[in-house]
Amino acid sequence: MSAFSGYLVFLFASFAATFSGAAERQVLQQRLAELTGTFPVVGDFPATNRLHATLCLPLRNAAGLSNLLGRMYGPRSPDHRRYLTPETFTEQFGPSKDDFAAVVAFAQAQGLTVSATHSNRTLVELAGTTADFERAFHLRLRL
User: Tens digits of per-residue pLDDT, 68-82?
Assistant: First the structure.
C-alpha cells in the first residue's frame, strides 16, 4: 500500500453538481462494477487514509466546440489557425461559474478540502479521508 501512497484520482465525465439523483448514482455504480468486477477484493480501504482526487467537470456546448475545431483546423476555413485565448475558451466552453461554484460548495459541504482549482473551471482538486469520499459520493473504496 505504500507504493499507492493513498493517492486516487477520480474523473467524473459528467459530474452533477447536486449529485442527489438516484439515476446518477446507479450509472456510476454500474460503471464502477464493470471496471472493478474482475479484480479480487482483499479488504476495505482504511477509513482514515488521506486521499487526493481530481474532479473533471464536463465542457459546455460540445457541438459548438466541435464546429469551432473543424473551422480552426480546416485549411480552407477563414478561421484556420485562429486560436482562442484560454479566457475566451473558458467563457465559451468551460463549465459555467455557477456550476463550478456548486461543485466546490458540494465538496466543502461534504467535509472535503478543495486543495486547488483551475482557471478554466474544468478541474477541482480535493483532499479528505476515505470515509469523507465514501460518504460524499455514496461509494465504498476497497483494496
Answer: 888 888 888 888 888
- Are 44 and 89 within one domain? no
Asked if residue 83 and residue 65 are part of one domain, the reply reads yes
CA 137 → CA 2, 60, 81, 116, 132, distances in Å? 24, 23, 41, 19, 9
Residue 67 CA to chain centroid, in angstroms?
Answer: 24
Q: Are residues 44 and 101 part of one domain?
A: yes
Q: Which of 110, 27, 7, 95 is nearest to 56 (CA)?
A: 95
The CA radius of gyration of the chain, in Å to the nearest whole number, is 18
Residue range 86-125, pLDDT digits in tens: 999 999 999 999 999 999 999 999 999 999 999 999 999 9
User: CA-CA distance, 73 to 83, in Å (whole number)?
Assistant: 10
